[in-house]
């Protein structure tokens, strides 16, 4: 895939310490590398299995958004502990001052005159309690890439349901309820933090504009005063 690389995404794969009958949480960081507002949306090949908060949003220039992915409790492990699930993160330049409520599905439709960046992440199961720590390769900035040798388009991914969707009933003991509550509170705090950053950024831009207008007005007034004094001085000399 081609793209201008709007976002820097960490990690490159979503690694879950798999345990049966327990919800598992993983986080990723989306950093806006541009000087523009960027809208993003998260999709997955298995939307009923995961809860993502937020599943879409606006990232201000050079700001970072934390996204929490929670996998619902699983009753059985996949063969060889291998997972085929994948996530797709789409991003596109948004209008300055845009907010999450301004995001529409049409924003992510591809067109000849519009670039929609796409980044795929695999879901990887790792041991919940490894016998010894194994150093991982350092993660750097990643640009959009294709994970499989075969062709896989964004149509293979489904939109995530409401980002506040809770795990299935019948699989929620007291511990599961508490974890879900804490996860929701964390996500709400992250969302509020993003909104505050956006308001602060808008306020800073307004202050800059007002300061520039004030300076411009002062320059014009100063020039007018100097011109008046020059005329007055010339008149005084001529009269004398």
From TrEMBL:
What Pfam family does this protein match (any one)? Motile_Sperm
- List, alphabetically, the GO terms of the cellular component aspect: endoplasmic reticulum membrane; plasma membrane
Domain (MSP) spans 6-126
The record lists the membrane-crossing segments as 218-237
Q: Does the keyword Protein transport apply?
A: no
InterPro entries, alphabetized: Ig-like_fold, MSP_dom, PapD-like_sf, VAP
Enumerate the Gene3D superfamilies for this protein: Immunoglobulins
Record field: compositional bias (Polar residues): 149-162
Question: Does the keyword section mention Lipoprotein?
Answer: no
- Residue ranges for the region (Disordered) are 127-174
PROSITE patterns under this entry? MSP (PS50202)
BP GO annotations: endoplasmic reticulum membrane organization; endoplasmic reticulum-plasma membrane tethering
**Amino acid composition bias (Basic and acidic residues), ranges on this chain:** 163-172
UniProtKB keywords = Coiled coil, Membrane, Transmembrane, Transmembrane helix
Where in this chain does the entry annotate a coiled-coil region? 179-213
| Family stated for the protein in its record | Belongs to the VAMP-associated protein (VAP) (TC 9.B.17) family.
Protein name stated in the entry: Vesicle-associated protein 1-3 isoform X1
Tell me what gene encodes this. Answer: LOC105043611
């Amino acid at each position: 895939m081609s793209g201008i690389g709007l976002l820097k995404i960490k990690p490159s794969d979503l690694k879950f310490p798999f345990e049966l009958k327990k919800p598992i949480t993983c986080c990723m960081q989306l950093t806006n590398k541009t000087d523009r507002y960027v809208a993003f949306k998260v999709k997955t090949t298995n939307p009923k299995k995961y809860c993502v908060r937020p599943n879409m949003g606006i990232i201000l220039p050079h700001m970072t958004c934390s996204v929490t992915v929670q996998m619902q409790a699983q009753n059985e492990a996949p063969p060889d502990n291998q997972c085929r699930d994948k996530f797709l993160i789409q991003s596109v330049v948004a209008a300055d001052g845009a907010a999450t409520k301004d995001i529409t599905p049409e924003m992510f439709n591809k067109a000849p005159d519009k670039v929609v960046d796409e980044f795929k992440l695999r879901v990887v199961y790792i041991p919940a309690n490894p016998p010894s720590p194994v150093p991982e390769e350092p993660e750097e900035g990643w640009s959009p890439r294709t994970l499989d040798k075969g062709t896989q388009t964004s149509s293979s991914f489904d939109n995530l349901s409401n980002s506040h969707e809770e795990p299935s009933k019948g699989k929620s003991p007291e511990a599961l309820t508490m974890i879900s509550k804490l996860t929701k509170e964390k996500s709400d705090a992250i969302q509020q933090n993003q909104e505050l950053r956006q308001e602060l950024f808008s306020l800073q831009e307004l202050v800059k504009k007002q300061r520039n207008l004030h300076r411009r007005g002062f320059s014009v007034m100063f020039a007018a005063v100097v011109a008046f004094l020059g005329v007055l001085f010339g008149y005084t000399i001529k009269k004398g």
